[in-house]
Amino acid sequence: MKNNLLTDFSKYVSLNVLGMLGLSCYILADTFFTSARLGTNGLAALNIAISIYSVIHATGLMLGIGGATKYSIFQSQNQSSQANNVFTTTVLLGLGFGVIFVLIGLTASSSIAWLLGARGMILEMTDTYLKTILCFGPFFLLNQIFLAFVRNDHAPRLSMLGMIVGSLSNVVLDYVFMFPFNMGIFGAAFATGLAPIISMLVLSRHRIAKKNHFHFGAVDISFSKVFSIFGLGSSSFINEISSGIVLIVFNLLILQVAGNTGVAAYGIVANLALVALAMFTGIAQGAQPLTSRLYGQGQHKNAHKILKYSIIVSVSLGIVLYLIVFLFTDGFVSIFNSENDPLLASLAFEGLRIYFIGFFFVGVSIVSAAYLAATERPKPSFMISIVRGAVAILVFAITFSSLWGIDGIWLSFPMTELVTVVLSILLIRRTISQKSLRIKSPDFENTMDEKGGNKNG
Known about the structure:
Layout: H1 2-76, H2 80-115, H3 120-135, H4 137-152, H5 156-178, H6 184-203, H7 205-208, H8 223-296, H9 300-327, H10 329-336, H11 342-355, H12 362-374, H13 378-450
Helix pairs in contact: 1-2, 1-3, 1-4, 1-5, 1-6, 1-8, 2-3, 2-4, 3-6, 4-5, 4-6, 5-6, 8-9, 8-11, 8-12, 8-13, 9-12, 10-11, 11-13, 12-13
């Protein structure tokens, strides 16, 4: 059983990490081509706009992971009609949020760009990118939903393929739109917006091949069902939205202490960090279908083993990532420094080496929050995510920036992750202890009943 469990874990996690790596190339490709074509101003505009993409992506993850988790639990309990209703509800929620994003894009993109700190030429480029991305909001959300449901419907390979094909198409289209077609930053945003559509075309094979177990059912939306989806997906939402919050706060703080060049340097750090975070998210999302299925079947010890495997892989990955960044810092910086700006190179160099210390800890927090959500423990999951994504990072960033300038801003990320990992360990231990007590109690009572020693006898 242990070998089968480890094999399934390796399969789901490796495929999902590869898929998330491909998905993270959405923004990395934009960063590379924008830097090469539009220089420091383009890089600064993109970095300011990316925070809103994080909001869209976070909403999609919340709906996809929350709905797919509930779907897996119902399926493992042979409640197909309830599972289909969760799928239908999730898709409708995705469409609803998608329309909201489109309306925001059409009416408020320039105001949002200004509030995020964009000015002058950067304001115009940021507005263009934001408007385009927001208008593609429904496709981003639906793609995240279908990716999660296909993965949880025993098709992790197809889910991975959808993510990778969509991302590779974005890379190709980025080049075509920005160089031969000379479409500027609109070309970068347009390429990114087309990627989820291409991904969904790949995922449609699951239905065409008649391998899917989820179908559209009768519309029966209730507040409890919606809140359940939101609750189970809240940790994924907060983990992703934290990237957007960090981007916004850091951009505003860095503008004060290092100007547009500082923001461009943070663009390099942040986009490489997004790729690294995608790997840890891939571990968490890959483990989620197995954890939810085992939990739904009452196999709590095996669900706990999945958590152990996830933590071991996350810590190992964190060590490897830091070593790579430390050894090849100059190379990473030069890729995105097309103008060979010495100030940009210096700021990004220091930023990468300090910021990436946080990746020793971040994986434990992400997989712990995902485990708690997958086992229907949304409150402690949300607590981990909100401390990591909003409370601690804001406190440390504001405090440290006033003490040590831009170095303090870089340092706030690893300090946040250190605090969060301590909280995660405490909450996981408490949750496992509570579950152990609940599991042991019925066994004890059943044993007493068999001996004729129950409380009524």
